[in-house]
Amino acid sequence: MWVATQNGLNSFDQKTGIFKRYLHDPRNIHSISSNNMQLWFGSHLKEDKEGNLWICTDKGLNKLNSDRTIFNHYFHNPSDAFSPSSNIIISLQIDQAGILWAGSWRGKLNKVNLNNKGFGLRQYDPNNINSLSNNQVKSILEDCN
């Protein structure tokens, strides 16, 4: 079981009753990028088909590998159109096709095909009635259709 808090990511072993805490360590590039994962409501943790755990933080999107040893970080880079649109990631969803959708604070809806690299964006366009209605995406859910 995984628990996201304002003071770290925790895994709980139900057999032993012990929590393991994952904290940001500025000396370790493979630690989580931030201890703060309490960013409003929504889904902050998702596991993909490969067993990687994706985590929302206030300092980028993080992926914990399936061995639970290394965090990879995905940060906004203004010169890279395929980076997340913001570093404050507040919601996640992985759909049945393996697409990761990440909502960000004031940064649009990010779309990542987990089989490929790079982020794609969906955003509000006041001139397009079929665009996203607002760039602040706080929660994402895939329906059964």
CATH topology label: Methylamine Dehydrogenase, Chain H
Unreliable spans are: none
Strand content: 35-45%
Order of helices and strands: EEEEEEEEEEE
* Percentage of residues assigned to helices: under 10%
Distance between the termini: 28 Å
Structural class, by secondary structure, is mainly beta
Overall 3D form:
globular
Main sheet: strands, sense, barrel? 4 strands, antiparallel
Q: Kindly provide the radius of gyration, computed on alpha-carbon positions and rounded to a whole number of angstroms.
A: 15 Å
For this structure, what is the CATH homologous superfamily?
YVTN repeat-like/Quinoprotein amine dehydrogenase
Question: If you had to describe this structure to a student in words, what would you say it looks like?
Answer:
The chain is mainly β. The chain has a single domain, classed as YVTN repeat-like/Quinoprotein amine dehydrogenase (Methylamine Dehydrogenase, Chain H, 7 Propeller). It has strands spanning 2-5, 8-13, 18-22, 45-47, 53-57, 60-64, 71-74, 89-94, 99-104, 109-113, 120-122. The strands form three sheets. Strands 4-5-6-7 form a four-stranded antiparallel beta sheet, with no helix packed on it. A hairpin with a 4-residue loop joins strand 8 and strand 9 (99-104). The mean pLDDT is 85.
Strands, helices and their partners?
Elements: E1 2-5, E2 8-13, E3 18-22, E4 45-47, E5 53-57, E6 60-64, E7 71-74, E8 89-94, E9 99-104, E10 109-113, E11 120-122
Antiparallel strand pairs: 1-2, 2-3, 4-5, 5-6, 6-7, 8-9, 9-10, 10-11
